[in-house]
## 1
Amino acid sequence: MSIIELGEVQARFADIVWEHEPVGSGELVKICERELNWKKPTTYTVLRKLCEKGLFRNEDGVVSAVISRDEFFAARSKEFVKESFDGSLPAFIAAFTSQSRLSDEEIDEIQQMIDRFRKEARK
């Protein structure tokens, strides 16, 4: 998946779509008017641009995601680690934890993830 760049306005709009999908385009206009103070043309312009980028689709007046929120942020995270730490997840974790300590709960959660990944890799 190629990385889709979103500006601040597009990111706010994307969050709304992900939160409400599938959502009728008319309902989306109402939500954006209420939450972003947008007029109908603004909603449709931003929607069209994000459909062109391949993030969403608008079929028969129903807006839904082509790429889920989790998939989107997973790809962005992977790209960040690749660009900033030469793709090394351990280097990223070392840098992250050098500035803030992990709680016992976070350490346990990470260990559970490692154990699960190790188990899956052995299959």
## 2
Amino acid sequence: MIDYLLKFDTQEQAVQFGLDNGFVSFDEDGNPVTTLATHTYALAILGPWIHQTGTDEDGDPIFVSDGKHWVLFRDAANLEVPTGADQFIVWTSEQGPRPENAPQTAWA
């Protein structure tokens, strides 16, 4: 089993990648629908990475979004990595701890 953290410039780019690789389809209203899990994989759509950058003068946290679209993918069946995916893969569980400048969301 391998986990992948992918970063897309936009949600539209992520949806197109999902369409191209069979993870996304459209419903009857034309809205994208992501298949979040099968017996071979699971997806967690993280969206923008929002992280605390400090506190304001009242001591309240200041949060900033990176404006990217992040997806956590768990490969449970040694699937072949889709062509072109390497440009979006920021981290794999085979590399050890995630980079500090990435979402740290984990599977429950």
## 3
Amino acid sequence: MIQTEIKATALELTPAIKNYLEAKVLMIDKFVDSSVGGVLADVELAKTTGRHHLRGDIFKAEINLQANGNFYRASSTKEDLYAAIDEMKDEIIRQITEKKSKKQTLFKKGARRLKGFLRGWGR
């Protein structure tokens, strides 16, 4: 289970937003192995205006995830808060699966080399 800390900047964290965010963070739990160690997610939701005030409000969703000794970070800025949360979730899942895929590829490459070595040695 992912331990989640949520911070809201310049916007009110309503129960609907909190429930939506927690549901998206639970989706990330499928991609990390939380049985090995603690998984901590720091999420910040913010409403920014500044130079974007002519287009309306701009929302930012950012996550910092620590899982199994690895650190992942994703951020998204959109005109819709829910779209920013979705894009943030997709980006963090992409990073996690990319790292897992890279580890598996390196393992398989090493196993192929070992197999080739053992075949050549037995002749």
